[in-house]
Write a structure and sequence with these properties.
Elements: H1 3-16, H2 19-23, H3 26-31, E1 42-47, E2 55-58, E3 64-67, E4 71-74, H4 80-93, E5 102-108, E6 113-118, E7 124-127, H5 136-142, E8 155-160, E9 166-171, H6 173-177, E10 198-201
Parallel strand pairs: 6-10
Antiparallel strand pairs: 1-2, 1-5, 3-4, 6-7, 8-9, 8-10
Amino acid sequence: MSSRVLLFALLCSLLSAPAFAQSGNPADAKKSYVHKLQLADRVRVAIYQEDDLTTVARIDARGMVNLPLVQEVAIGGMTVPEAQDIIQSRYREGRFLRSPQVTVSVEEYAPREVSIQGQIRSPGRYSLPTESTFTVVELVTKAGGLTDIGKGSAVVITRVMPDGSKQVFTVDVDSVIKGKKGSGKMDDNTLLLLPGDIVYVPERLI
């Protein structure tokens, strides 16, 4: 292979690489955001050269959208590429279309809020950024920080799952702020908040 061809191949690989991969900065990779379709997101589902099958609908409380021919398809909690793949499979497996090319886009995002209560200076509900991540530490900072008696080493996050069950996490916010790794099993630096999360800062016993 000639040097000119090798140079061209190298240039193509650099241009196609993700931005965080080029920078080599792990923090950039951590902050990269991939939206997962939420309940009440309004989505547009289009199929190439099948204009009559285009649908705009909200994802219902069960994570479903109702589409022509295939009817209900569960896409809640999926990324856009995952949703496109499952919808394409449904049209193929139902023998409605031989090689469907599906495009899913979010026309309107559902409200994305979390709440923080307890020993925090400005408790209440806060909106999550639409297209970026948001950590527990960032929420604590946005809410004015802990009170003088707030127990930052045991901040509790309660998350309601789609099936109605609850998951509870405890985050050592103090250690994260000081640049230390949390003492729990989970990496506190990468615990990202999801819509509906409830954050509680307990009182520190004096």
